[in-house]
Write a structure and sequence with these properties.
This protein is mainly beta. Helices cover 10% and strands 53% of the residues. The protein is elongated. This is DUF3575 domain-containing protein.
């Protein structure tokens, strides 16, 4: 009788342990908090965090990231020197699909929209009623004043990635993405036909010259650290 009771308890304990193991066929409806450490090393540095939430079909999830940065804690001294008062806001909205549905420990494909804004206030000489092309622009007059320059980036990426379990609740999310991005630079609160007296730039990737720039290719790669709730 004693052996029978021990056997029943052993079977019950196995059943209980098995019930606590997530099924390999499902993701399990779990919410994951994430941080993106490499965003601190970006030229437009941000402290960035996000959350991943499963949808009604757990193979699909949505992920939202937000980040804020200031040149005061930029790791690149050139950026600190050239843009001492620049702020950066970054948002990434993503929908992803997991292929193998193994408790979010599988490969996935995702579509992502990125919005980034650089904001910088400074005192400079601004030209008004400017005409002409980019390299032969002429202005009617210049005025020394406070300015608020905004750089706006809109981008779309297709991403491939996978999540690797690092512990009971911790994981690493590694990804690679390709897409396009467009840049719009303008003074906030000033007419559009204005320019700074010291704006000389031959590249549109990091330019501060006001204007709408045509889309270019975009590469996004990195990793997140995640914590399962």
């Amino acid at each position: 009788m004693r052996k029978c009771l021990l056997g029943v308890l052993f079977v019950c304990s196995l059943a209980s342990a098995y019930a606590q193991v997530p099924s390999p066929d499902t993701l399990g409806s779990v919410i994951i908090l994430k941080v993106t450490p490499l965003a601190l090393f970006d030229l437009d540095n941000t402290v960035q965090a996000g959350i991943e939430v499963p949808l009604w079909n757990p193979a699909w999830t949505v992920q939202q990231e937000v980040g804020y940065g200031h040149s005061a804690f930029n790791l690149w001294h050139v950026e600190r020197d050239e843009h001492p008062h620049r702020e950066t806001w970054r948002s990434r909205s993503q929908i992803r699909y997991y292929f193998h549905k193994r408790n979010q420990q599988s490969a996935y494909i995702a579509g992502e929209y990125l919005f980034k804004k650089n904001s910088e206030e400074q005192f400079e000489s601004v030209g008004y009623d400017c005409t002409g092309g980019r390299f032969n622009q002429q202005c009617a007059y210049f005025k020394n004043q406070d300015t608020h320059l905004g750089r706006f980036v809109n981008a779309f990426h297709i991403k491939w990635g996978g999540q690797i379990v690092m512990g009971e609740r911790w994981l690493m999310d590694i990804y690679l993405g390709l897409g396009i991005r467009a840049l719009n630079v303008r003074y906030l609160g000033l007419p559009r036909n204005t320019r700074s007296d010291d704006q000389v730039d031959f590249f549109s990737i990091r330019t501060d010259i006001p204007g709408r720039y045509r889309p270019t290719g975009s590469l996004s790669m990195g990793f997140h650290f995640g914590y399962r709730l």
